[in-house]
């Protein structure tokens, strides 16, 4: 399990800036009352779609897929783990932001 | 324990209706090095990627000791060295290695000058040649049962190539290794068997003269 967490973390590092930017963008507008929670989730889902594009367009990131495959993991599986973990963080942060 | 046998059979790979690979049979058992030779664009790298599972042909049958393998990399059965750099940036080399190195080779890796000198650093601090050597080592010493090396002798110096051949031979005592490179003399030197890919077909090479017969070499030195 530790092995999977470590590999997922290395994979997540290539997306973390983008994922957090989208999260903070959505949370900020929820906090300001300009976005409801449902819309924030939709923004986050679009963020994941764009993250796929960001990583695909980043030449070095797509080349590093071979490292993760050599570690025994499919890239789709790592996306599921990464987005799952990121979404969990997002839910925690957005819950905290709505406590007033 | 019986050595595992990797078999690749009936591969059909087409691009725009042109058959790149059409009658391929490749076998490699643990304990041997199989060298693949062929002209540019004949499908050598494609064949390795098909075995690894990152290229999907029209048809293929890949198995390890009779067990069908859809994607070689799953469960770390097969490791692959691509032609390009592949290690992620911003992670300490020792952490990159920790995830994939076979315990039986951890001392060999630790004793290698590249790893010994740089394991606490990230790949950004390596030169191009050093990075390539490290990438090769991380694949060769990986936990996989079979190792695929795509142009391992390119981008390294002759003396490093000699050292690499010793590492490959040692690793091949317990793993199966399939490799390809345009530096055919290194392939001939390190391989137990040679397969030539020509016109989409694999042909076992029994004697160096066969490479001239099939038009891969103009003459033998």
Describe this entry's structure for a reader.
- The complex is a heterodimer of chains A (100) and B (221).
- With 100 residues, chain A is mostly helical.
- Chain A has one domain (2-98).
- Chain A has six helices and no strands.
- In chain A, helix 2 (16-31) packs antiparallel against helix 3.
- The radius of gyration of chain A is 15 Å and the shape is elongated.
- Chain B has 221 residues and is α/β, with parallel strands linked by helices.
- Chain B has one domain: 3-Layer(aba) Sandwich (Rossmann fold), CATH 3.40.50.300.
- Chain B is 30% helix and 27% strand.
- Chain B is built from eight helices and eleven strands.
- Chain B has helices spanning 44-52, 93-98, 106-111, 113-118, 128-140, 158-171, 184-190, 209-213; strands at 5-15, 18-21, 25-29, 33-38, 59-64, 67-68, 78-81, 146-150, 176-180, 193-198, 201-205.
- In chain B, the strands form two sheets. A six-stranded mixed beta sheet of chain B has the order 7-8-9-4-10-11, with helices on both faces.
- In chain B, a hairpin with a 2-residue loop joins strand 1 and strand 2 (18-21).
- The longest helix of chain B is centred in the last third of the chain and has 14 residues, at 158-171.
- Chain B is globular and about 50 Å long.
- Chain A: The chain crosses the membrane at residues 12-31, 37-57, 78-99.
- Chain A: Keywords: Membrane, Transmembrane, Transmembrane helix.
- Chain B: Keywords: ATP-binding, Nucleotide-binding, Transport.
The spatial strand order of the largest sheet of chain B comes to 7-8-9-4-10-11
The helix/strand order of chain B is: EEEEHEEEHHHHEHEHEEH
Q: pLDDT below 50 for ≥5 consecutive residues: which ranges of chain B? A: none
Beta-strand proportion of chain B: 25-35%
């Amino acid at each position: 399990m530790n092995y999977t967490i470590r590999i997922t973390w290395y994979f997540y590092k290539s997306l973390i800036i983008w994922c957090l930017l989208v999260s903070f963008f959505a949370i900020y507008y929820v906090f300001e009352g300009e976005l409801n929670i449902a819309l924030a989730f939709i923004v986050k889902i679009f963020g994941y779609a764009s993250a796929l594009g960001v990583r695909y367009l980043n030449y070095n990131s797509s080349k590093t897929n071979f490292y993760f495959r050599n570690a025994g993991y499919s890239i789709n599986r790592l996306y599921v783990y990464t987005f799952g973990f990121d979404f969990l963080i997002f839910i925690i942060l957005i819950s905290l932001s709505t406590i007033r | 324990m019986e050595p595992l046998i990797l078999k690749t059979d009936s591969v059909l790979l087409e691009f725009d209706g042109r058959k790149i690979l059409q009658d391929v049979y490749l076998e490699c058992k643990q304990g041997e090095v199989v060298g693949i030779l062929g002209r540019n664009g004949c499908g050598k790298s494609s064949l390795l990627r098909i075995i690894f599972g990152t290229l999907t042909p029209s048809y293929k049958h890949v198995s390890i000791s009779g067990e069908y393998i859809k994607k070689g990399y799953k469960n770390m059965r097969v490791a692959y060295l691509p032609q390009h750099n592949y290690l992620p940036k911003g992670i300490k080399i020792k952490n990159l290695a920790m995830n994939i190195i076979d315990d039986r080779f951890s001392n060999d890796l630790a004793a290698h000058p590249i790893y010994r000198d740089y394991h606490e650093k990230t790949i950004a601090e390596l030169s191009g040649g050093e990075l390539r050597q490290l990438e090769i080592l991380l694949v060769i010493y990986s936990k996989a049962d079979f190792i695929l090396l795509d142009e391992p002798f390119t981008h390294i110096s002759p003396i490093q190539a000699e050292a690499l051949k010793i590492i490959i031979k040692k690793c091949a005592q317990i793993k199966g290794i399939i490799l390809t490179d345009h530096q055919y003399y290194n392939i001939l030197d390190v391989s137990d068997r040679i397969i030539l890919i020509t016109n989409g077909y694999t042909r076992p090479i029994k004697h160096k003269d066969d490479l001239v017969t099939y038009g891969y070499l103009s003459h033998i030195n």
